């Protein structure tokens, strides 16, 4: 995580004072002052893996794309099959530059009446400008600046959420805990409108809840009053997503990286590959499925010393041939893990990789991702 911003001109979250009152240590992140930890990263990480953690992700960009043909138009700059997305369904996709470089990764929901997007906090203003430049003027792109976003994550997230008696906005619709992974809907809690999706970025079952900013404190307080739920900071969110093998934009992805290099082939749907009419399609598909020169891979690190973003991958002669983009200690596995870009020839599981950090060489082994199995509440296959 990049916490290099100064405290000057930092934006405040709707829950900023609430975090401080709980004793959170606040840090600069994505232009905001955000909680990095409350009682400690290790304890918060383990709590989320075993109980339910509440994360404030209100720095993320929540957008509405409104107008006829919105999903079709969005396909011009994303490789996902968005026009086939049914109402109440969510898809992970990538915002691509005209040369195929990754400008952001995002979640796209068909609400049934518009397209709801969640983009990364550090890139949201650039994303909005790019979309407005590329999309037809007949469409309206709204930035939902008056909405907060909370993520309730962990194996007891559904148990906790059920205690709030949240009701569907319309008769006949499911309650939130009847949603499956990558499903969403509109709900009411004490007459407060909520947008709830069964999704998240920890690898655990959980929900993301869009709530009017003026009601964010009430909702966060109601959740953390439950025995299963504790507030969790950015530090544990980062270690959880690393264990889950999930890339973080600005670290494991950037405009110089193409989807195949980022090991995100699943985001290139078959229908869109056949149509080949999205931004940068020629460059992207020239690498598909395994023709890129490099690839994002997972690493098990020998010893106990974590390797960090920016460390070099080197060959036997000490030449730099790749780089580490995320790294840290895994509380679940009790060992250091990392993600790195390496030449495709070295990307196979079990390959030995040498990383150089502060002039010290550390041996690593290419590992399958996720490092810790995902625990999503998926719909059973018939």
Compute the number of strand runs. 21
* Gyration radius from CA atoms, angstroms: 21 Å
Distance between the termini: 40 Å
CATH architecture of the domain at 11-58 and 146-243: 2-Layer Sandwich
Strand content: 25-35%
Please tell me the overall pLDDT. Answer: 97
* Strand neighbour order, sheet with most strands: 11-12-13-14-10-4-15
- Assembly status: single chain
List low-confidence stretches: none
Biggest sheet overview? 7 strands, mixed
Tally of helical runs: 9
Q: Helical residue percent?
A: 10-25%
The secondary structure category is alpha+beta
- SSE order: EHEEHEEHEEEHEEHEEEEHEHHHEEEEEE
Describe the structure.
The chain is an alpha+beta fold. Among the domains are: 11-58 and 146-243, Probable tRNA modification gtpase trme, domain 1 (Gyrase A, domain 2, 2-Layer Sandwich), CATH 3.30.1360; 293-367, Aminomethyltransferase beta-barrel domains (Elongation Factor Tu (Ef-tu), domain 3), CATH 2.40.30. It contains nine helices and 21 strands. The strands form four sheets. It has a seven-stranded mixed β-sheet, with helices on both faces. Strands 16-19-18-17-20-21 form a six-stranded antiparallel β-barrel. Helix 2 crosses helix 7 (234-243). The chain is globular, with a radius of gyration of 21 Å.
